[in-house]
């Protein structure tokens, strides 16, 4: 039992480190996105998602960036992954709902 | 597992979970999402808004106003060069095409047009949507549109129909009223009141035709309605432009990519 507790503790520390690294990538992505540098922001948020694949914020931000870049399929996948990780997160849900409206319109335009 | 041993395990797991979750910061960011055009207009250099079959109120010349409005919008919001030419008298053209005289070439510029034999009779005046049915054959007359295309160096042709008619309705509507309580404090409360209202209905249909072949590429219909309190005397032309404003983004999105502004929430 003690071994299990130590193991859980160690993995908790490791994932806390991963989350910290991912957060610093995400923060940098936010600062560049706010200056309109969306490609660089995508790179940072993809990096954050690689470092910590359970970090919903990274996928949410990727969804926004792909939307801004007109890559609707990738945006949809990113938002869905974010919601899978944090289904109760209202900010992600709100972003996804707004995205779906735009995506429906784009689909109507393309006739698909 | 005893309760005593269970506590540290649970607290460790909780601690790890808390350190992973941490605090989330939110940042609202404006975005500008591109929506691709409905039509691929790359084969065209020019666009010709030729005119519309129109009807409804006589207070507004829906054909002229629509032509003028669309041309001015296309001049600034599309890469296509807008052809400046007098709008075609499409109602007359449609009548001529359906008359036997069209076959002999005396029909107001309808060459080789296949007259719609046995077609619906043309109404004396276009009042509403059902009066437009007789004119449908005009938009499908590829030979006619191809001839128009040849005259203007094969542009993208924009035509269709516009009905702008008065409308009245009465019923219960919700209004916001100011009320003051006993301490003189102002409040705005919703109140349901019976109201007679009048206004206008706008029914534009835009038809996009390939000036090289005369074929219809795309068409889209819209319906807008505005009602105003009877004591508010809104000029027909104001209402027309108010309603056209609502339709224009979608019209322009047919020909060019538009960007939808909004905001999203970034998370850290």
What's this, in brief?
In chain A, 84% of the residues lie in helices and 0% in strands.
Explain the layout of strands and helices:
The complex is a heterodimer of chains A (112) and B (268).
Chain A: H1 2-33, H2 38-51, H3 56-68, H4 72-85, H5 90-110
Helix pairs in contact in A: 1-2, 1-3, 2-3, 3-4, 3-5, 4-5
Chain B: H1 3-21, E1 26-35, E2 46-49, E3 53-56, H2 62-77, E4 81-82, H3 90-98, H4 136-139, H5 142-151, E5 156-180, E6 186-210, E7 216-221, E8 224-229, H6 236-255, E9 258-267
Parallel strand pairs in B: 2-4, 2-5, 3-5
Antiparallel strand pairs in B: 1-9, 5-6, 6-7, 6-8
How does this model look, in words?
- The complex is a heterodimer of chains A (about 110) and B (about 270).
- Chain A contains five helices and no strands.
- Chain A has about 110 residues and is mainly alpha-helical.
- The longest helix of chain A is centred in the N-terminal third of the chain and has 32 residues, at about 1-35.
- By secondary structure, chain B is of the alpha/beta class.
- In chain B, the strands form two sheets. In chain B, strands 2, 3, 4, 5, 6, 7 and 8 form a seven-stranded mixed β-sheet that branches. In chain B, strands 1-9 form a two-stranded antiparallel ribbon.
- Residues about 1-20 and about 100-115 of chain B have low confidence and may be disordered.
């Amino acid at each position: 039992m003690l071994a299990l507790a130590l193991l859980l503790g160690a993995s908790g520390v490791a994932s806390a480190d991963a989350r910290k690294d991912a957060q610093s990538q995400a923060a940098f992505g936010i600062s560049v996105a706010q200056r309109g540098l969306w490609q660089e922001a995508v790179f940072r948020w993809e990096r954050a998602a690689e470092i910590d694949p359970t970090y919903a914020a990274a996928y949410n931000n990727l969804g926004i960036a792909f939307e801004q870049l007109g890559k609707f399929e990738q945006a949809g996948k990113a938002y869905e992954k974010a919601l899978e990780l944090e289904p109760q997160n209202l900010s992600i849900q709100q972003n996804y709902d707004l995205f779906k409206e735009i995506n429906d319109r784009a689909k109507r335009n393309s006739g698909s | 597992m005893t309760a005593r041993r269970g506590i540290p395990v649970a607290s460790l797991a909780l601690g790890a979970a808390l350190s992973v979750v941490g605090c989330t910061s939110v940042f609202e960011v404006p975005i500008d999402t591109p929506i691709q055009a409905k039509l691929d207009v790359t084969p065209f250099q020019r666009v010709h808004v030729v005119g519309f079959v129109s009807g409804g109120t006589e207070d507004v010349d829906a054909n002229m106003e629509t032509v003028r409005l669309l041309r001015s919008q296309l001049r600034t919001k599309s890469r296509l060069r807008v052809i400046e030419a007098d709008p075609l008298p499409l109602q007359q053209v449609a009548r001529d095409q359906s008359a036997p005289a069209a076959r002999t070439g005396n029909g107001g510029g309808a060459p080789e047009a296949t007259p719609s034999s046995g077609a619906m009779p043309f109404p004396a005046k276009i009042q509403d949507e059902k009066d437009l049915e007789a004119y449908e054959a005009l938009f499908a007359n590829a030979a006619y549109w191809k001839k128009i295309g040849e005259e203007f160096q094969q542009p993208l042709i924009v035509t269709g129909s516009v009905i702008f008619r008065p409308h009245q309705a009465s019923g219960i509507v919700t209004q916001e009223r100011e009320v003051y309580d006993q301490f003189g404090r102002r409040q705005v409360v919703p109140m349901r009141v019976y109201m007679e209202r009048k206004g206008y209905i706008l029914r534009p249909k835009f038809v996009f035709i390939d000036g090289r072949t005369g074929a219809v590429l795309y068409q889209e219909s819209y319906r807008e309605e505005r009602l105003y309190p009877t004591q508010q005397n809104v000029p027909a032309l104001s209402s027309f432009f108010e309603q056209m404003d609502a339709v224009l983004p979608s019209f322009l999105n047919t020909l060019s990519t538009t960007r939808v502004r909004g905001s999203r929430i970034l998370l850290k």
